[in-house]
Structure formats: C-alpha cells, structure tokens
Amino acid sequence: MDFKAIKETYSEIDKEVAVRGWIYRIRKTSNVVFIVLRDSTGILQTVFAQDNFNKQEWDALNSLGVEAAMEIKGKAVSQSKAPNNVEIQASSFKIVGESDNFPISKDFSPEFLADVRHLWIRSRKMTSIFKIRSSVAGAIHEFFRKKGFYEFDAPILQPNQCEGGSTLFEVNYYKDKLYLTQSWQLYAEAAVFALERIYNYGPTFRAEKSRTSRHLSEFWMAEMEAAWMDLKDISEIGKEEIKFILKRVLENNKEDLGILKQDINKLKKIAEKDWPTITYDKALSILKKKENMEVPWGKDLRTIEEDNLMKHFDTPIVVTNYPKEAMAFYKPKDPKRPETALCFDMLAPEGYGEIIGGSQRSTDLEELKSSLKKEGEDISNYEWYLDLRRYGSVPHSGYGVGVERVIAWICGLDNVRDAIPFPRTITRYKP
C-alpha cells in the first residue's frame, strides 16, 4: 500500500490507508492508545485498540513518546471529535525512529527554545511560518520574472561597504581583508548597464549591535535594480511586489495563517487597498500634530517614530525624501529640494517598521566622490564603481526588501527571529 500524506487522508473516509510521520501527541489508557501523528501536511488522530495487537506490539506502543517516527496502516473513519474530523483505526504499525524524553513541552522560555531550535522547528507554529516563507520566496521570483527581470547574483565576499562601515563583518581572505555583503547593490548597478532589469534573492549581513525584535545579523534580502527608472517608478513597483506576495500567501497558506491566528480578512483588505505615499516632511507633521512628537528636521526616523507614525495607517506606506545628510553616499539630492535625497522607505503597520529601503542612484561622479570622502572612505577602493558613471551612465534605481520583516508582519510574529530557521543575532550564533 502506498503511503499518503496526512492531508490526503481527510477525504479517504471508509478506506484503508497508510501514513507515516512523527508523534505530535500521545494519550494512553488501559486498553486504547491515541496517537496524533504529524507530517509536513497536517495532523491526524490514530487509534490503537489493545485487542488488535499482541503483547509485544502493545508494550512497544506503550513505550512510545512524543516525536517518535512511525508508519501506520488502518481504516480512515469520520470522527467529529478528532482534528480535521477524521481518524485512523490502526491495524498495524512500524516504529521507524524512537524518541526518549523529548525536551520540549509547554511553557518554555524563548531562550530555551532558541537553544533547541533544531528541535523547535518541528512545531506546528514554526512549520507554518516556514511554509509561508517558502510562498514568499516563490512569489518574489514569480513577480519579477513576470515583469521581465533577470535574476542576477553578486558575490557574498566584497571589498567595499555599501550601507555604512560600522556594520561590516570582516573576513580574512587569504592575505587580504574582505567583508560579508551588506547588499548586492553596487554589483547590481554594474549589471543594469547590460541586463537593464535585474533582481536577486540572497543572504545579507549587518554587524548592527542591536537587540531589538526587528534586527538580525544575517538575514535575506530580495533586491531589484533597473535602468531608466526613477524614485516614483520603483516605489510603485515596491507596493506591487508586497501586494503580490501577500496575495500569494493568502492563496497558498490559509491553514498556516489560521494556525498562527492571523486575521485573513484583515490581510485581504490590506492587499486590496491603495497604499499611501508621503514625504519625510509630512511624516514629521503627522508626528507633531497627532502624537505631540517634536522630531528635529534632519534626524532619521527611529523605531519609536516609525511606530507612532504607523498608528495612523492600516496599510504599509511609502515615505520619501529623507534628509540627504542622513543617507548613504549613493543616494542623490532631489533637484527640487537639495537638502533631501531621492529615496524611500516602506513602513509596515502594527509596529513592524521598515520592510523596504530604496532610492534613485546618483549619476554625478563628483558628488559620489565627495560623499565617499565625507564617510571617510578611500576613493581608490571604489574606482570600479565610479567607472559606471564614466562610461555610458544612465538614470537607474533600486530597492531591497527585508524578507524576514515581511514574513514577521504577514505572520504576526513578536520577533523577526522566528521568521528565519536558524537566527543569527548579536547574542545568538548557534545551533
């Protein structure tokens, strides 16, 4: 008999089936053993009556613990009190992998669960998050390929900073010093002069000494770069992309969102609404009028300002034209207001903060040199990048999506660490 995925058995009432998986829950009485089995598709109650098994088999059943792996054969029957209204009346079984005193039960601390992450990822909560993560990744690839973008890979080991020298991870590279990538952006800017529209999905590293629920030292970014596009073009594509991701998750992961207790109707409404675009100036005005917060002009928005601003929006928003002095070297001045940069952030509601950061890219060779000098950089290390402005430069723009932050927002997670299988933070580098 072929094994069926547990979810497939829900429609196999009154048929003989074979399933396999791990013990999710087990309850033993004097003459019946109830086992809820799990696999990647769901959970299934199985019932073992003592009369159907010999003494050796019965003793083996009674020795089982949570997370033991089993193969079970029996008849699927309707049972209103069972999960998904079906159970298996077991006729035979095979123990594939024993489990003795599985260390995780209820009410353990987040730190303990982080210590045993290799086991905690088996939980239904984490399984649902990772299914949603898979849908998010698939949607990103689908979205950009439908729009005619090419996937382009950049090196993980890089000689230059892109987002600030203070957050670089140093790597010994034979006799030289390199850094783990902060972004693919500088290499993407080289590639748009060949491929015009490109995207990437890959790991990113920032040595930020932050302990907040929004930060990881290793995370994944979905980045795009396009020739001939300006700030408005890419900020609108950013809205399209996140809406597309949200719709794909709603199509593919209703059960997982239910397990995570997410409000599916709320997410549907968000996906269907228009998402506002406001300026940094407007954001400061909202904070002053509605939150009585006096934010000095020129200061980048921190977590507290973003959270208070997003109290007044029920969808993600785009904020443009942050102060130039607070921005990275490659973000150009807005000709209409030179003290601001042609850049944007997308902020998610409900305290999830920035999920996209992007900008037009400066095409002014001298301005780039001046900005690099201000940041204390050795311009000779960027000659290859400056060449892009010397030979047929054109307007181009791009952005990066923080994948874990998007997942955390969609899943309603308390901490971005749960959006990635094995988180790396300032205090956590194992398992």
Short description:
With 431 residues, the chain is an alpha+beta fold.
Mind explaining what this structure looks like?
The chain is an alpha+beta fold. It folds into two domains: 6-97, OB fold (Dihydrolipoamide Acetyltransferase, E2P) (Beta Barrel), CATH 2.40.50; 114-419, BirA Bifunctional Protein, domain 2 (2-Layer Sandwich). The chain contains 14 helices and 18 strands. It has helices at 6-9, 55-62, 110-115, 117-120, 124-146, 185-195, 231-252, 254-259, 264-272, 280-291, 303-310, 365-374, 383-390, 403-411, and strands at residues 16-28, 32-39, 42-49, 69-78, 86-97, 150-151, 157-158, 170-173, 176-180, 197-205, 218-227, 277-279, 317-320, 333-334, 337-341, 343-348, 353-360, 396-402. The strands form four sheets. An eight-stranded mixed β-sheet has the order 6-10-11-18-17-16-13-12. A five-stranded mixed beta barrel has the order 1-2-3-5-4. It has a three-stranded antiparallel β-sheet with strand order 7-9-8, with no helix packed on it. The protein is elongated. The mean pLDDT is 95.
